[in-house]
Amino acid sequence: MSQLRLPLLLVALALMLSSLACGLFSAPPVNEPPAPSVPSVAPTEPPVSAPAESGVNPNAVIPCATLIPPDEWNNLIFGVDSTLSEDAVPGMTSCLWKYVPKGGTQESLFSLQAGFSGDTSIWEATRKSELSNEPSDIVVISIDGLGDENYTWRSKVTNQYVVYVRQGSQTLIFRYNPQEILFMGTESGIIDMAQRIFERMK
Q1: What's the per-residue H, E or C state across the chain?
Q2: Which of these, 21, 91, 140, 196, is most buried using a 10 Å CB contact count?
Q3: Parallel/antiparallel/unpaired status of strands 82-89 and 149-154
Q4: Separation CA 181–CA 178 (nearest Å)
Q5: What is the pLDDT averaged over residues 119-137?
Q6: Which residues contact 101 (CB under 8 A, 6 or more apart)?
Q7: CA-CA distance, 178 to 160, in Å (whole number)?
Q8: Can you tell me the distance from the alpha carbon of 130 to that of 125, in angstroms, rounded to the nearest whole number?
């Protein structure tokens, strides 16, 4: 019996040594190379649109009180009572003030037509039509420093002073009595008033 047990022990010992040998000499686990890192890409932002050009909105409706504020108008006519007829539509505003000047007895008119639609053809056609109603000897002058283009004359039909001004695609037409609207009785005053209104149309 002892003789049989010895071979069994030897076989078991051989199996143990074989297992150990396999464990010692087996290849170490191979670490898989890390996956290549993908550089993070920032989300593409839409291009920043260029700022819109500043200027006049052709669809705006600009009231007369914006073009010539009431306080400013009262100063022009020295505080006398007046009434206003207004026609304000997108791209164009027409204002007609009626008043009796200080010391006067008859009603006077101050007319302003402002165009900001970008189309100056109405301004041009109105000027030509108005001049065609004047005598052939009417004198039309231009004031230096008044807009990009201007025409002024003393009407022999209404006896009013008429001023047509264009600055870019903005236009103005004034009709008034300079002996009553003293501020606009000089070229510098006309330039000043036109410039104020052009700024208020933006």
Answers
A1: CHHHHHHHHHHHHHHHHHHHHHHHHCCCCCCCCCCCCCCCCCCCCCCCCCCCCCCCCCCCCCCHHHHCCHHHHHHHCCCCCEEEEEEEECCEEEEEEEECCCCCCCCEEEEEEEECCCCCHHHHHHHHHHHHCCCCCCCCECCCCCCCEEEEEECCCCCCEEEEEEECCEEEEEEECCCCCHHHCCHHHHHHHHHHHHHHCC
A2: 91
A3: unpaired
A4: 5
A5: 97
A6: 77, 78, 80, 108, 177, 180
A7: 8
A8: 9
Residues 6+ apart with CB under 8 A from 175: 109, 110, 111, 155, 158, 160, 161, 162, 163
How far CA 195 is from CA of 67, 84, 184, in Å, comes to 11, 22, 12
pTM above 0.70, yes or no: yes
**What pLDDT was estimated at residue 55?**
65
Q: Which amino acid is at 102?
A: K
Residues 152 and 175: beta-carbon distance below 8 Å: no
Q: Which of 118, 113, 116 is nearest to 164 (CA)?
A: 113
Distance CA 118, CA 14 (A): 105
